[in-house]
Amino acid sequence: AGKYGVGVAFEGDADRCLMVDELGHEIDGDKIMAVCGAYMKRNGRLTGNTIVATVMSNIGLHKYCAEHGLRLLCASVGDRNVLELMQKEGMRLGGEQSGHIIFSKHATTGDGILTSLKLMEVMLERKLPMSKLTEGLTIYPQVLENVRVKDKLAARQDADVQKAVEAVANKLGDTGRILVRESGTEPLLRVMVEAPEDDTCRACVEEVVAVIKAKGHAI
Predict the structure, then answer these.
(1) Could you tell me which of 56, 115, 60 has the C-alpha nearest to residue 82?
(2) Is the distance from CB of 178 to CB of 192 less than 8 angstroms?
(3) Which terminus of the chain has fewer Cβ atoms in its 10 Å neighbourhood, N or C?
(4) Are 133 and 34 in contact (CB under 8 A)?
(5) Cβ–Cβ under 8 Å, residues 138 and 34
(6) How far is Cα 87 from Cα 23, in angstroms, rounded to an integer?
(7) Do residues 30 and 139 lie in contact, with contact meaning Cβ atoms separated by under 8 Å?
(8) What is each CA distance from 180 to 84, 155, 172, 202, 206, in whole angstroms?
(9) Half-sphere exposure of residue 140, counting CA atoms within 13 Å on the CB side?
(10) Apex CA 92: angle with CA 116 and CA 49, to 5°?
């Protein structure tokens, strides 16, 4: 209604931010890293032309980076892990899908206000609306199911579970991906699938979850 160029939302302590473009489309952390990473590379400010994300970053970001000469390193989930890898590799840009972005030249933690200003800087410098800056970046549907289990490690390492995961990975090929990981704080196994269609994601997740349950790992 207000015909604004961009909208910004901060959570509690404003260390994260999410945005919407002028068309009302969501700009999550993966899109923020793609736009800022491409801009920083263009201006010679992106060390090693590398972005540090996490294993949960969308496959669309992986494809975008490959197509734009950007290298993508993936840390374990958590901003501490992102920062650790950034410092180890000497990288300047990293973050999470949730909008927790670190610009290491300016800060050693996520800062939502800084992130929003950095993104608007790209808009102003490029003289392009946000919808144009994110063109070419397709965020794939993602389905995540948490399965409460008796033993996280035993469930993940079960040979039949691993076969089911491998079968899904082979079925998806380079059109999607599957990730099975243990929760760091709860007795959960997290099964996540990304694919071009939501129905495919759900079917693949259920395929693996069914094996986890059939083998008696679920509580």
Answers:
(1) 56
(2) yes
(3) N
(4) no
(5) no
(6) 36
(7) yes
(8) 23, 10, 15, 14, 13
(9) 28
(10) 105
The residue-averaged pLDDT of 157-172 equals 98
pLDDT band at residue 3 under the 50/70/90 scheme: confident
HEC string of the chain?
CCCCCEEEEECCCCCCEEEEECCCCEECHHHHHHHHHHHHHHCCCCHHHEEEEECCCCHHHHHHHHHCCCEEEEECCCHHHHHHHHHHHCCCEEECCCCCEEECCCCCCCCHHHHHHHHHHHHHHHCCCHHHHCCCCCCCCEEEEEEEECCHHHHHHCHHHHHHHHHHHHHHHHHCEEEEEECCCCCEEEEEEECCCHHHHHHHHHHHHHHHHHCCCEC
Q: Is the pLDDT of residue 2 over 90?
A: no
On the 0-12 / 13-18 / 19+ scale of CB atoms within 10 A, 200 is: buried
- Residue 177 CA to residue 61 CA, distance in Å, equals 13
Residue 118 carries which side chain, given as an amino acid letter? K
- Whether 195 and 201 have beta carbons less than 8 Å apart is answered as yes
Mean pLDDT of 32-60: 97
Give CA–CA dist 176/167, Å, rounded: 13
178, 165 in Cβ contact below 8 A?
yes
- Strand 50-54 relative to strand 93-95: parallel, antiparallel, unpaired? parallel
Length of the chain measured in residues: 219
